[in-house]
Write a structure and sequence with these properties.
Blueprint: H1 7-37, H2 43-88, H3 106-146, E1 152-156, E2 162-166, H4 167-174, H5 191-204, E3 208-213, E4 220-227, E5 234-238, E6 253-255, E7 277-285, E8 295-304, E9 307-317, H6 326-332, H7 336-339, H8 345-355, E10 360-363, H9 366-375, H10 377-380, E11 388-390, H11 391-399, H12 407-413, H13 426-446, H14 452-459, H15 463-469
Helix pairs in contact: 1-2, 2-3, 2-13, 11-13
């Protein structure tokens, strides 16, 4: 039971036990002394003595606990967080050992170990970089080769989730909704045509021609479904002559083949963090009051299998319907002229809701940003029932509640740089928060928090932080 408590809380409970024990012992000693004296007139004196002892002893215990908390417990917590950041998040900044001056040689020893680990990591990183360069060259050749093939193509897993799509396929999907890795094809295409073709392909093991319709019924496509050999899933090739294929243009690929092996059948609480899709977002607003201010800009990126998907982002100005105060414009640089003619919160809200479908929504101080969206849920015509994670609370879990948890502080701690021209822009802050999340995921796993349910249970212990922020 005690193993689940933080170090600082366990130390606090130890001092509480020490205080209770001291009061019991002193009370028992005075009671025995009073019984031996056998003089009823001295009872008031003994009671007064016990009160003095109790107040003095409690003051001493509280003083020692505060010193111990500041000079032992907090430094140990900070030191362990710094070591974990270096081991699992690739942080290489010099360790702060000044706070560990009362821990003997523990601080310098940890710094020496971290430096040795960093040297090893650098050598490993150089080898990885060389292999990555080779893979990048191979990918460039593959992209050039695909550019000569005038079709739109995507790969899907056995559960019909998107594993890969090229630029032409992205155009096809974008006619219906924003393209998203690991999204179900049923979000884009009517399910019957897909499932019938998949059943036939599975039976014959051969390529199948199929006619597909968009979920809204406005688009019809001719396609071919091909098996992937020994791998699960299939390739879907759109070869309708009405598609605007431009073989002379570059053809970037968006993919993650690990999605082919991802199980999506577990209960959400039991799903591993590395198997989840995250949509990390941020908003800029007319002010700091969610009950009356409005969103002027929203930015979001997707994180799949622990990596930011470079080709999947949302960046939109929003017409707030009210004037933007000059004080707010000085912060986020969005003025009335910029939002004139921009879509309102209803249109942008629906787009973002679709972009975040079947994903965990992540934000830095999420209750603030979500409050704006939830206030307009009825107008938008959606329910914001997505699971939500807050990087403020994740920072408290990993680095301790006593640390500073602003976005700038967390980014500095994890060696993440936000370009000055992107700070306080919705997309810039969303990208920074996504980079924070990507570095935090392995750190959480190293602490034994490998499933979504375990992470949420830990963050709930720090909910008071968000109440103070808001």
């Amino acid at each position: 039971m005690l193993n689940r408590l933080s170090l600082r809380l366990r130390i606090f409970l130890f001092f509480c036990l020490l205080a209770v024990g001291g009061l019991v012992v002193s009370s028992l000693a005075l009671w025995i002394s009073y019984q031996r004296v056998d003089d009823p007139e001295l009872i008031d004196a003994y009671i007064f003595a016990e009160i003095l002892i109790a107040f003095g002893f409690l003051a001493l215990i509280v003083g020692v606990w505060l010193l111990f908390d500041d000079n032992v417990a907090k430094p140990i917590e900070r030191l362990s967080a710094q070591l974990r950041a270096r081991a699992h998040a690739g942080v290489n900044t010099e360790m702060d050992v000044r706070a560990t001056r009362y821990l003997g040689d523990l601080g310098p020893a940890a710094a020496g170990l971290a430096e040795q680990f960093s040297d090893t990591a650098i050598n490993t990183a150089e080898a990885v970089a060389a292999e990555t360069a080779h893979l990048a060259a191979e990918k460039k050749r593959l992209t050039a080769l695909l550019s000569e093939i005038p079709v739109a193509m995507l790969l899907a897993g056995p559960k019909h989730q998107i594993v890969l799509y090229d630029a032409q396929a992205a155009e096809v999907l974008a006619q219906i909704a924003h393209p998203r890795l690991n999204a179900s094809l049923f979000d884009y295409l009517e399910s019957t045509g897909l499932t019938d073709a998949y059943s036939e392909m599975s039976k014959t093991g051969m390529e199948v021609e199929c006619s597909l319709t968009s979920v809204d019924g406005t688009q019809a496509y001719s396609a071919r479904m091909k098996p992937l050999g020994d791998a699960p899933g299939y390739m879907l090739i759109f070869d309708d002559s009405t598609l605007r294929i431009r073989p002379d243009e570059a053809r970037p690929l968006i993919y993650d083949f690990d999605l082919l092996d991802t199980s999506i059948d577990e209960e959400f609480e039991n799903r591993r963090l590395t198997d989840l899709c995250f949509v990390v977002f941020d908003t800029e607003t007319t002010g700091l009051l969610p009950h009356k201010d409005e969103i002027v800009q929203i930015g979001a990126v997707r994180v799949v299998k622990g990596k930011i998907v470079a080709g999947e982002k949302l960046d939109s100005l929003v017409d707030p319907g009210i004037p933007i105060p000059a004080a707010s414009t000085r912060v986020h640089k969005v003025n009335d002229a910029m939002v004139a003619g921009a879509p309102d919160i209803v249109d942008v809200g629906r787009t973002f809701h679709q972009f975040a479908r079947d994903a965990v929504i992540v934000a830095h101080n999420a209750p603030f940003d979500m409050a704006f969206l939830r206030r307009h849920a009825a107008r938008i015509g959606v329910k914001w029932d997505h699971p939500v994670l807050d990087t403020v609370l994740l920072s408290a879990v990993l680095f301790g509640a006593s640390e500073t948890h602003t976005l700038d502080a967390v980014c500095e701690r994890l060696e993440i740089t936000i370009p000055n021209d992107l700070r306080h822009t919705a997309l810039g802050d969303a990208v920074a928060t996504a980079q924070v999340l990507v570095k935090m995921l392995p750190m959480l796993s190293a602490r034994g928090m490998v499933t979504f349910g375990k992470v949420v249970a830990e963050t709930r212990k720090h909910g008071r932080l968000l109440e103070d922020l808001n």
